[in-house]
Amino acid sequence: MQIGVIVYEDNNNLRESLCNLITFSQDLLLLGNYSRADLVTTHVRDLNPDVILMDIDMPGISGIEAVRQIRTIDQRAQIIMLTVLDDNTNVLEAIFAGASGYLLKKYISDHLTEAITQVLQGEAPMSPGIARLVIQSMQETTKPTVNLYNLTPREKEILGHLSKGNSYKLVAAHFDISIDTVRTHIRHIYEKLKVHTQIEAVSKATHEKLL
């Protein structure tokens, strides 16, 4: 089954390029493309996308506000923010609003398919710099919390790698284990922390001083 994608991007040339990449992919299906996100909730309800590519800076409502609106009606769709390199603060705000990760516009032609695959597998494509911002924003001056979640040493190590923005593939290579084994560890981490996404796991672990 093909992966349904909606594109929001006000730059006509970039939007056309994205649509071409999606159209020419056997695994992806372009459901719609828009230069504004004012009707985003209507689009999401009608088209039921698997993945949404969302520009942060658009006329009308911003990409961040669009993410907030999407999350009021849909928790399933994966949202990848499209951004420029120096837009870290807005990316962080978008992630806390409910985005699944982000993709740099300058590298979009090389990494679009990979980023979509990652979010559908539960990963959060983002740079180490953004991962650090997430951690810093969640840090508090309280004492470390006792490990009430019974995370194993290996699970803590893997969670630490996720907090640095490393992909499942990089984690598997570091520990010389298979990606399926990484997924098993991460599934156990999610179950113990009672979370559902990588962002939630990293945020909770950092907030409660588990790392």
Explain briefly what this protein structure is.
The protein has helices at about 10-25, 40-45, 65-75, 90-95, 110-120, 130-140, 155-165, 170-175, 180-195, 200-205, and strands at about 5-10, 30-35, 50-55, 80-85, 100-105. The protein has about 210 residues and is an alpha/beta fold.
- Rg calc: 17 Å
Which fold name is given in CATH as the topology of the largest domain?
Answer: Rossmann fold
Rounded mean pLDDT is 86
Strand order of the largest sheet: 2-1-3-4-5
Residues in helix, %: 40-55%
Spatial gap, N to C terminus: 38 Å
Low confidence ranges = none
Q: Any idea of the CATH class of the largest domain?
A: Alpha Beta
Largest sheet: 5 strands, parallel
Shape: globular
Q: Under the CATH scheme, which architecture of the largest domain would be assigned? A: 3-Layer(aba) Sandwich
Q: Oligomeric state of the chains?
A: single chain
Tell me the fraction of residues in β-strands, as a range: 5-15%
Number of E-state strands: 5
CATH H-level name of the largest domain... which superfamily?
A: Response regulator
Helix and strand run: EHEHEHEHEHHHHHH
